[in-house]
Write a structure and sequence with these properties.
heterodimer, A: Flavocytochrome C3, Chain A, domain 1, 2 domains, 8-stranded mixed beta sheet, 5-stranded antiparallel beta sheet, B: alpha+beta, Ubiquitin-like (UB roll), 3 domains, 5-stranded mixed beta sheet
Chain lengths: 541, 249
């Protein structure tokens, strides 16, 4: 299998314009032009895609319909039938989520002296962290500084980010990198091996992303998992949290979990709880495919909302401009931004560029949509999907033969399996759901508006504003994962847990019912359902 | 009579021995879902890096046994598929900060690597096409650099461990080797060390405090004055070395 003839024909057009394109300089858009492009073409601004919540702590917040449906669903349990007096586990700090945020929170909480339990819905490490290809941002080079990192990040978020959180993010970044390095993460190095290598992602004024080939998240995740086991932290897999529990002082004091294989429920009592449940790409907003892992169903948002945790920017969903469009088998999978950082162009059916490839994602994604849907300059796949080219062979032309093999072994291997050699042929791409920019509002210690509930990583919101820059998510999970771990453990030292209660679950359901919006489904969603026709229809719900 | 195993758009295959007809544009993972399976195990990232969906198959009539990741491999006519939800592995418990002599470490923590028969079954069974045996042999010989570089794309699916006649768990051995290589054999990166030191000394704190306090209009003005490092490789110096500090007084 390779590209069909119709697509090969268009590849000739793309090849014929390469010399010309290499000379072309496309200026960055002004702030006004950015705003206009987002307003006009970004899927988040499609009419009717979002609605306001009618009840609860987040009443009035505008959020995507797919999340609102889950917020307005019933609990998976009847709180009155749950015995809260005999917990199955009793720990200092409960970490919910087995990605990079959860793992670093668990490690730091234990280092701070807490007895820690980590639970996760799938296997430990099954997460968006492990899928991160591009790398992690941190200002380390001479011509760079945390101040520039601060400016890039604020601009990336359209200046909506919470300044104090961004300050924390950029200041902690180099220290976090050193922490990862000291655990054995194999960052790419400069040819003399003396420094770690820096490369570009969108929206950066300096090279600031540090990668481990295009397996960055994989290397970090497998090492953090290994370290968690080395330190004897208890981990239980395949038990998602289905409700959070408060004590009578209103402080988060544990979770009710469901064993996916035996259907047994376990009550876990904890002095503090860290929610690191990740994002929600598997809700397939507006029917888009996603780069996210199988468990990214927004469970943490649902249960945190029920106990009164504030959310922020949840309407801002990030579309990655370059998701795979062909072959159909791997529809929507991530093609890292680093390709553009190393010189790959985005090219339409006429062989022309249409945007500066190093614009940030909320600019580049709508630019692709404009080109395809509105300007009709798409390249068609055999099943009629429409996209644009990512001219990957340019990476070799600009940086020398062998670059792709060295920097992008994962992507090269993946496409090779389908008979496509990305050193010689381009990749057909289209925007795909990638990241939940907002989430549960946190402070600089990672604490939410509910006492004792800490949140880390993609489940949290505020630091990225309405749009995250590439490389800032791997950074965010470690910066705030570590902070949440430390401060949750410190809080646990002084906390006495009162009487446990699920009353807020009852109350919330009653409010939904009274407002007439209670849905006859149960949430959190736990796992998507792709059976039968859904596999091919792209209609998932 | 020979059964026809494919049409223009579909293929016939066997999941745990049972026959299904599925569209030909699916991965094994999606084909199983199309057939009606809803995964709890054997499904993680769906993007070829988590190793959850290790799948073995034979094509009817072919003696060979293939290992693939179900989310990355296309269906083929006549495939007989099984999946492996979990593989027990041996993992050594160690303190990365207190490992002692690098050469002796492997013998202490993973002595079973010396049982390697060089049979190369691990290499043949790797869905990532890693030359696993060379990596293990390099580790035994003390060439941690080579062992690390070869094994780097490992997704820890466990295929090699399941097939190894010497009962080695290569994924844990090579992870151990890579961690030791980075922490004990590679130099500390100079650029990172100096920045960590400067931050610890509080060099940027006053200016960060200023940035956080800026009103939006001023912040945007400063943002737009950033100098763009060029995409082309090579030594580059910004014109204003002390930007944005020079604007924050």
């Amino acid at each position: 299998m390779s590209y069909p003839i119709s697509m090969k024909e268009n590849i000739k057009t793309l090849e014929s314009t390469r010399d010309e394109r290499l000379k072309e300089k496309i200026p960055r858009l002004s702030l006004e032009e950015r705003e206009k492009l987002i307003r006009s073409y970004h899927p988040q601004h499609r009419d009717g895609a979002q609605r306001k919540l009618k009840v609860g702590i987040n009443k009035g917040e505008l959020i995507p319909n797919e999340i609102a449906d889950l917020f307005e669903a019933k609990s998976r349990i009847d709180p009155d039938k749950i015995d809260l007096n005999n917990p199955d586990y009793s720990v200092d700090v409960l970490v919910i989520g087995g990605g990079g945020g959860g793992a670093s929170a668990a490690l730091l909480a234990q280092e701070t002296g807490a007895h820690v339990l980590l639970i996760t819905k799938l296997r430990f490490g099954d997460s968006n962290t492990i899928m991160s290809e591009g790398g992690v941002q941190a200002a380390v080079d001479e011509q760079d500084s945390p101040l520039l990192h601060y400016l890039d990040t604020m601009g990336g978020g359209g200046f909506t980010n919470i300044p104090g959180l961004v300050r924390t993010l950029v200041r902690d970044a180099p220290e976090v990198l050193k922490w990862l390095l000291d655990l054995g993460v194999m960052f790419d190095r400069t040819p003399d091996e003396r420094n770690i290598l820096s490369s570009f992602a969108g929206g950066q004024c300096r090279r600031r992303v540090h990668s481990c080939a295009d397996y960055s998240g994989l290397d970090m995740m497998r090492i953090l998992r290994d370290e968690t086991y080395n330190r004897g932290i208890e981990v239980i897999e395949f038990i998602p949290a289905i409700e959070l529990i408060l004590d009578d002082s209103g402080s988060c004091s544990g979770a009710l979990t469901l064993d996916l294989e035996t259907n047994k429920k376990f009550l876990i009592k904890a002095k503090t709880v860290i929610l690191a449940t990740g994002g929600s790409g598997r809700l397939h907003f507006q029917g888009f495919p996603t780069t996210n892992h199988y468990g990214a169903t927004g469970d943490g948002l649902v249960i945190a909302n029920r106990i009164g945790a504030r959310i922020i920017f949840l309407d801002a969903i990030q579309f990655h401009p370059t998701g795979t469009l062909y072959p159909e088998h791997i529809l929507g999978l991530l093609v890292t931004e680093a390709f553009r950082g190393w010189g790959a162009h985005l090219v339409n059916s006429e062989g022309k560029r249409f945007i500066n490839e190093l614009e940030k994602r909320d600019i580049t994604a709508p630019a692709v949509i404009r080109e395809v849907v509105w300007k009709k300059k798409a390249i068609y796949s055999p099943t009629g999907r429409e996209g644009v080219w990512l001219d990957t062979p340019l990476v070799e032309i600009i940086n020398g033969q062998g670059t792709i093999n060295r920097i992008f072994p994962h992507l090269k291997h993946r496409f090779q399996g389908f008979g496509i050699d990305i050193t010689k042929e381009p990749i057909l791409v289209y925007p795909t759901i990638h990241y939940q920019n907002g989430g549960i509002l946190i402070d600089e210690r990672g604490e939410s508006s509910v006492k004792g509930l800490y949140v880390a990583g993609e489940a949290s919101g505020g630091v990225h504003g309405r749009n995250r820059l590439g490389g800032n998510s791997l950074l965010d999970i470690f910066v705030f994962g570590r902070r949440a771990g430390k401060y949750a453990a410190l809080r646990a030292k002084e906390k006495k847990v009162g009487k446990l209660t699920l009353q807020c679950v009852n109350d919330y359901e009653r409010e939904l019912s009274e407002a007439g919006v209670l849905k006859d489904i149960a949430s959190p969603g736990i796992l998507p359902d792709y059976r039968y026709e859904r596999t091919i229809s792209g209609i998932y719900r | 009579m020979q059964e026809k195993l494919s049409t223009n758009n579909t293929v016939l295959l066997y999941i745990f021995g049972k026959k299904y007809e599925v569209p030909s544009t699916l991965t094994i993972q999606k084909a199983m879902e199309y057939a009606g399976y809803r995964f709890i195990r054997n499904c993680g990232c769906r993007g070829g890096v988590c190793g959850a969906c290790l799948t073995m198959y034979r094509i009817r009539g072919d003696y060979r046994l293939y290992n693939v990741l179900a989310c990355q491999a296309s269906v083929e006519p006549g495939m007989e598929i099984t999946q492996i939800p979990f593989i027990p592995l041996r993992k050594a418990i160690y303190d990365i900060r207190n490992i002692g002599n690098l050469m002796e470490a492997l013998n202490i923590y993973y002595p079973e690597v010396l049982r390697c028969l060089s049979c190369n079954t691990c290499t043949k069974s790797c869905p990532q096409d890693i030359i696993v045996m060379e990596s293990i042999q390099a580790a035994i010989k003390g060439d941690f650099k080579k062992a690390s570089e070869i094994s780097f794309p490992c997704v820890m699916c466990g295929a090699c461990a399941a097939r190894c006649p010497a009962e080695i768990s290569p994924q844990n051995v090579t992870l151990f080797v890579r961690r030791l290589y980075v922490t004990h054999a590679l130099s500390v990166p100079g650029n990172l060390s100096s920045m960590v030191k400067e931050i610890a000394q509080g060099k940027f704190d006053p200016m960060l405090d200023e940035l956080v306090k800026l009103d939006l209009t001023r912040l945007k003005e400063i943002y737009l004055k950033r100098e763009q490092e060029p995409l082309e490789a090579g030594r580059w110096e910004p014109q204003e070395r002390d930007f944005p500090a020079n604007l924050l007084k």
